[in-house]
Design goal:
globular; alpha+beta
């Protein structure tokens, strides 16, 4: 089961390192309004899929609340059918759906969870409700100034 903060379910992007910092900064800068996770992770961790209208605590790399986000849409789809609109909303600067797929495959392979075009993913759209002033975007961060340096993301439990 996923961690709870202030009674809310939590949402984590990427791995709890520099990757999460970069991805959270993209959320706080308003560039990242979507993320993708593996449906199998939800099942493994006995956690329900997010739902529109749900408020989530976005966690930083130390497990503290970095922001509040509201889920605006959820789509379950095969990995090979993720749309350009979703890729664009992830805000990481991918030039094509193919580039996005290749990056996500590498990421999930590194985590020991390879995916194929039929793997069901959870595409979550969200909006920023409130962000931490102390965790604001760093204008010198390459994820803000050069989107091609960002890594793909994944949601998961704490």
């Amino acid at each position: 089961m996923w961690a709870r903060v202030e009674g809310m379910r939590t949402y984590e992007l990427g791995t709890a390192d520099e990757m999460r910092t970069r991805l959270n900064r993209l959320v706080l800068a308003g560039r990242k309004t979507a993320s993708t996770g593996l449906l199998a992770v939800y099942a493994e961790e006995a956690e329900g899929v997010e739902y529109p209208g749900e408020t989530l605590a976005l966690l930083d790399r130390d497990g503290a609340r970095a922001a509040l986000i509201e889920v605006t849409g959820v789509t379950l789809t095969p990995f090979g059918e993720v749309t350009w609109e979703h890729v664009e909303a992830e805000g990481e600067g991918h030039a094509s759906v193919e580039e996005w797929r290749a990056g996500h495959r590498r990421y999930w392979d590194r985590l020991g969870t390879p995916v194929d075009d039929g793997t069901v993913v959870v595409c979550v759209a969200f909006r920023l409700i409130e962000g931490s002033d102390s965790y604001g975007p760093d204008p010198a961060d390459p994820a803000i100034t050069d989107p091609d340096t960002s890594d793909p993301d994944i949601t998961g439990s704490a």
